[in-house]
Design a protein that fits this description.
With 290 residues, this protein is of the alpha/beta class. It has 13 helices and eight strands. 50% of the residues lie in helices and 12% in strands.
Length: 290
């Protein structure tokens, strides 16, 4: 079986659009795989929320622990949000090594300060110099043991310092060894222009529920513009929260969950199949029950 890093590298080198739904635990990752996606991601926003601490307070061990659960449970590549690399270039090197050992196939590193500020969620970003970011990316590429592991350089500077600066940084990060770059256009015009001015594989996100006016496009629209990968950083956790909240409100107000039991017999079976209970039953029958 090919390494997941090689599988993802082949996707990067192909003409195929890379579609990356971002999950927050092993079960949501398995669901994405069973639905038919070729890769998944872990976003810092969703993971921080799922752990109840927020993205700026995540530490490397939080991320690595969840990644280990996910990669041991799925058979598709995992890309992760490594934030600002958890420190200076030396810390970035450890971050990449730990993620590789956890079975991750790709990681993006952003040009924000570390530790990250909570105000990032309001669009108040604190950007390091491009030169400092280049040092981090060079450290990341030097640290990887598997040359198929994909390093993605992310710049948040388009909102803070304008579109031209974001383009300049993206091209500089590619020149510095990043395999891809990740940008945040502020509007539709910038989103369409970015692939024309950035000289390498480009990632865009579709951020459901964002309050900053960032544009939403379909996968086909983004592919036609020239993007290589599209990520959905918070959609899965937002849908999960909506469903859990609605069920719990119904339970609180009526004393019943309100769930269609016929439908949820199937849902429960889907979960059991996803985590491999039938195989566990087989092993127990062949061993414990002798």
């Amino acid at each position: 079986m090919k390494r997941m890093t090689t599988v993802l590298r082949e996707m990067l080198n192909s003409d195929k659009m890379m579609i990356c739904p971002c999950v927050y635990d092993a079960l949501s990752a398995k669901i994405a795989e069973r639905v038919g996606f070729d890769m998944v991601g872990v976003g810092g926003n969703a993971l921080g929320a799922a752990l109840g601490i927020s993205e700026p307070l995540l530490c490397l061990e939080d991320l690595v622990r969840v990644c280990r659960y996910i990669t041991s449970f799925i058979n598709i590549p995992l890309k992760v949000d490594a934030g600002a690399g958890f420190g200076e270039p030396l810390h970035v090197m450890r971050t990449i090594k730990e993620l590789e050992m956890a079975g991750v196939a790709a990681a993006h590193i952003e040009d924000q300060i570390y530790p990250k500020r909570a105000h990032y969620h309001k669009g108040v970003e604190h950007i390091i110099s491009a030169e400092k970011m280049v040092e981090k990316l060079k450290a990341a590429t030097e640290a990887r043991q598997d040359k198929d592991f994909i390093i993605i350089g992310r710049t948040d500077s388009m909102r803070t310092d304008g579109f031209p600066e974001g383009v300049r940084r993206a091209n500089l990060y590619l020149e510095s060894g990043a395999d891809m770059v990740y940008v945040f256009p502020n509007n539709e015009r910038e989103a369409r222009q970015a692939p024309r001015e950035i000289n390498g594989p480009l990632t865009c996100l579709v951020s459901d529920g964002n309050r900053m006016g960032r544009p939403h496009f379909s996968i086909k629209e983004l592919q036609d513009m020239g993007y290589k990968m599209v990520a959905y950083p918070s959609s899965c956790i937002q849908v999960a929260v909506k469903a859990v909240r609605e069920m719990l409100k119904t339970l609180k107000e009526t004393g019943r969950t309100g769930l269609d039991q016929t439908e949820f017999i199937g849902i429960r079976k889907y979960i059991e199949d996803s985590i491999g209970l039938e195989e566990m039953y087989r092993v127990e029958k062949e061993t414990v029950e002798k």
